[in-house]
Fold these 2 entries.
Entry 1:
Amino acid sequence: MSILKEDIEKKLMKKIIIDCFYSFIKNPNEESANFGVKFKWLNLALSFVICIIGVILASILSVSVFFITGDKIFQQRESFSIWKSLFENASIVVFIAPITEEIAFRLYLKRKKINIFISLTLLCYFLLCCLSKISFYKLDTANFTNISLSLTFTFLLFIFGVNKYFATIKYKYLFWFSCSSFALMHLLNFTPLSTYQFIFFPLLIFPQFIYGIVMGYLRVRQGLIWSVLLHILINGLPFCIKFLTK
């Protein structure tokens, strides 16, 4: 009898989670949800499943494009490959990147001044690193310069009232900007783009766009730590598969 009751409770929780997610996507808002711990973990698990489905769909599309064009558009450039050494970049890809990217692209989804300031500073830093063609995570003189410039620029933006501007933006636009900018940043994994990669670039960033939606949902409803955890799971999965199949 207790097993049946637990089964019913799980099904009910899953339905509530799906309904909550669907209603959030229809109308994103920055209200937190008062979920219990068990509910939050189940929400994380189902969010992970949604992200995996996104990867599978992207893979199917990739195969379809390959048959049409003969070009493996999803193949990343060697210079951006994480497989030069299995453990060499694990700390960056699995831990540091998820934390910094979640702070940059989703911390400001709760529109507090400090959140906006930190997110904008990191976004400026990422942009400067792209323009100067320097790795985000390589600490050298050039990157310290980029950090200083980013802090200065964000400080100036705040003097001119950028935080007040954030408060006037409709939340759904802010949310979808977060998802889109996060996805577009991952085009750097493929630069310089081949002809077909340039044409089919929406397919390249389709998984990251799905990630952005799901992580944004978790960040808003449950807190930043949960979107970071999901990000770590997604980034860590390829390392686990590679390790187990070695």
Entry 2:
Amino acid sequence: MSEEKTVSYRTTNSYETCNTFTTDTQNIWLVFHGLGHLSRYFIKHFKMLNPAENYIIAPQATSLYYQDKRYKYVGACWLTRENPEQGIDNNHAYLNALYEEELKPKLKANRRLIIMGFSQGVSVAMRWLHSRNLNCDQIILHSGSIPRSFYLNAFKELVTSTPVLVYGAKDPLITEDRLKSEMEYAREIFGREPRVIRYDGGHEVDENSLKRLAEETGRAEK
């Protein structure tokens, strides 16, 4: 008879940053990639932001795998249906360490924190934000699903501005019924009406929407 056991051990994981954190930095972005992405490529979507005002941190999912039979392309995954509770705990342990190392010292400088998740990164960002009980100025949920595990008004005090849902009009994964469900659930957990941005594209990061949101933030601060 077989028996599954567990063991804890120390491990090391990478993350990517873009731009230099200075006294001119206004926004700190914590951005979570989707299934199959690597942080060093995902972070390139944010290079169009004003480098003087925006500092970007891109965590790297810990599970790596080959995406093709030629063993050429490597992707990463945050979580699977196999023992998801353990996977969530491992993600949080990594993200908490990243927070202490990279994020916490910079937030002491009184900068705006923007959290963005794309696809699978939406669920990772939401779960960690809630478990950390961390306040952020803006949250952008791009082409992904919010985990249905949060209670009413769970994020009302954690996110200070209107939550933004970004979806592609041609995204095969986002039906009208699913978008309606996401909006209703977001309204419940954030305690306010979410903003929805639709762009003419598929299941891909829309840089124009992100740039637009960053520019709106800059104008609001002025």
